[in-house]
């Protein structure tokens, strides 16, 4: 496969985050692998940001000790931290003249055989999700076009990750809406049963349901479900379908 074909294939892969079995670790590992295959570098790693904006390595398992030491330090200082903090690319630079602020990272990287290190941010507009660390061996600098291509891969990865996050949030919201709708249907049915049984208005039936639920400390939907089953208020509502009541009973 030509380099151009590999680049095209990589962008397609980075856009494919809609699968039900989408796995973040596999996604970032694939991005690092593609960078090593296409760019003139020896190694790459994706470091993601936690909610507290601290970097971490999501694909740390199975890493050899020397590389692990480099990545462990890379989440604390060095080009990956700088790229994430500033949302700006850090052009790979010779570690023999690295900044003093990179001291510990530089020591570990040179001990592992790396001579150049840089990073690009995973960003989309104002949001930065982490950074892509680029490591190189040898004494020639990285080809001029490679950092730009790395940034393009990182931008595509950021879009893919944010898209996956939105889809997960949408799934959660849809499930919450389905649950709320189901509960509302149960309550409306129970109101009808109770109003007919006791010869009261729907508003009075609803207030009766609510008082009963509060008195027995169960969800209103749970009381409604039992009213539908027995056609009247149960004497002692069960904990079925009410995790909070089940938890309190165990305590």
Can you walk through the features of this model?
The protein has 251 residues and is of the alpha+beta class. It has two domains: 3-169, Beta-Lactamase (2-Layer Sandwich); 174-250, Winged helix-like DNA-binding domain superfamily/Winged helix DNA-binding domain (Arc Repressor Mutant, subunit A, Orthogonal Bundle). Helices cover 57% and strands 13% of the residues. The chain has a five-stranded antiparallel beta sheet with strand order 2-1-5-4-3, sandwiched between helices. A hairpin with a 5-residue loop joins strand 1 (43-49) and strand 2. Helix 1 runs antiparallel to helix 2 (24-38). The protein is elongated. The N and C termini lie far apart (63 Å). 32% of the residues are buried. Residues 239-251 have low confidence and may be disordered.
Q: Provide the helix percentage.
A: 55-70%
Q: What is the structural class?
A: alpha+beta
Structural domain count? 2
CATH 4th-level superfamily of the largest domain: GAF domain
How many separate helices? 9
CA-atom Rg in angstroms: 28 Å
What's the order of the H and E elements?
HHEEHHEHEEHHHH
Strand content: 5-15%
Brief sketch in words of this structure:
With 251 residues, the chain is of the alpha+beta class. The chain has 9 helices and 5 strands.
Q: What's the SSE blueprint?
A:
Elements: H1 3-15, H2 24-38, E1 43-49, E2 55-56, H3 65-74, H4 79-86, E3 90-94, H5 103-111, E4 116-124, E5 127-136, H6 145-198, H7 202-216, H8 220-230, H9 243-250
Antiparallel strand pairs: 1-2, 1-5, 3-4, 4-5
Helix pairs in contact: 1-2, 1-6, 2-6, 3-5, 6-7, 6-8, 7-8
């Amino acid at each position: 496969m030509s380099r151009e074909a590999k680049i095209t294939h990589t962008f397609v892969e980075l856009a494919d985050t809609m699968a039900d079995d989408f796995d973040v670790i596999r996604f970032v590992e694939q991005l690092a692998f593609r960078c090593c295959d296409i760019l003139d570098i020896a190694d790459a790693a994706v470091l993601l940001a936690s909610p507290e904006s601290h970097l971490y390595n999501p694909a740390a398992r199975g890493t050899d000790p020397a590389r692990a030491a480099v990545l462990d330090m890379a989440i604390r200082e060095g080009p990956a931290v700088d790229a994430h903090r500033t949302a700006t690319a850090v052009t790979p630079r010779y570690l023999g003249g690295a900044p003093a602020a990179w001291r510990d990272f530089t020591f570990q990287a040179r001990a592992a055989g790396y001579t150049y290190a840089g990073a690009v941010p995973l960003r989309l507009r104002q949001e930065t999700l982490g950074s892509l660390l680029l490591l190189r061996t040898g004494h020639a600098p990285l080809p001029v076009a490679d950092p730009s291509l790395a940034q393009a891969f990182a931008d595509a990865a950021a879009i893919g990750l944010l898209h996956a996050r939105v889809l997960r949030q949408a799934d959660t919201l849809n499930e919450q809406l389905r649950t709320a709708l189901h509960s509302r249907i149960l309550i409306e049915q129970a109101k009808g049963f109770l109003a007919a049984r006791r010869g009261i208005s729907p508003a009075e039936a609803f207030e009766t349901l609510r008082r009963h639920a509060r008195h027995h400390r169960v969800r209103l939907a749970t009381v409604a479900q039992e009213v539908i089953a027995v056609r009247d208020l149960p004497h002692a509502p069960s904990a079925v379908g009410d995790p909070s009541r089940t938890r309190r009973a165990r305590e």
